[in-house]
Amino acid sequence: MKAKDLLDRAVKTLKASPAIDHWQKDREEIESEDLLMHAMGVEDLDPAVEVPPAAARRFERMIARRATGEPVQLITGYAEFLGLQLMSKPGVFVPRDSTEFLAQQAVRRLRGRRRAIAVDLATGGGTVALAVANETKGVRVFGTDLSGAAVRVARKNAERLRLRATFATGDLFGGLPSELKGKVDVITLHPPYVARRELRDLPREILGFEPRHTLTDDSPDGLGLVQRAATESREWLRRGGWLLVEVSPDRARSVAAVFRRNGFRDVRSTAGGELKVTRVVVGRR
Hints:
Strand content: 15-25%
CATH architecture of the largest domain: 3-Layer(aba) Sandwich
Order of helices and strands: HHHHEEHEHEHEEHHEHEE
Structural class: alpha/beta
Radius of gyration: 20 Å
Largest sheet: 7 strands, mixed
Mean pLDDT: 94
CATH topology of the largest domain: Rossmann fold
Helix content: 25-40%
Number of helices: 10
Shape: globular
CATH class of the largest domain: Alpha Beta
């Protein structure tokens, strides 16, 4: 069967799935092509090419899994993030393109600094921390996560990519060396900001495949962890250091208010890149 025929059938299947959030234009086409290339073991795809039967069967099994809501990154076992190929494992928050802007904002504030220090809270598989380590020179990068499984994946990603970053299991700043207090240049956080009562409204592809603690902190407004981070980060940031928090657009104003109440200066909500589904709130100590 030709690739085009397989893709056309796959796109119809994905578009008909109630488990997928159809928010992005051409999302089903993009994901189908990515999965077919993975099944065939190629990096480019000619729609007219004949797909070997074994690869076609692999592809159809992948599409069936995706139609249940399972993220592409878990099906393939990896995620592409700012040029890095990161392992993606069940039980660890899936890296997504929308978070690239958070990493880019951190990198912009770290470049050119001598002996700079960066900390990524709730690091998951080390997505932002490793992107920062890859894009900067001489920066000491640390990542923490409440989940020991996530920290193990982060360490494996660092080893595979030969990037220098230190990962520790801990609640926010727990696990960090105390010697970093007052010396950190940039702190990044992609928090679980879904309010407790809003959790049931999430798409099945999120609610069914992401660990609950990566989605919500069980606070009524979803800002419990953001409040803690804004309060506690002041002890760790150097004067003039930055706190960067990724949130959904509807949360940005509330998060900015939390920053200001905790004495941060130059607070603003920023957006960039092709995907406008998130914003990064920034503030300077």
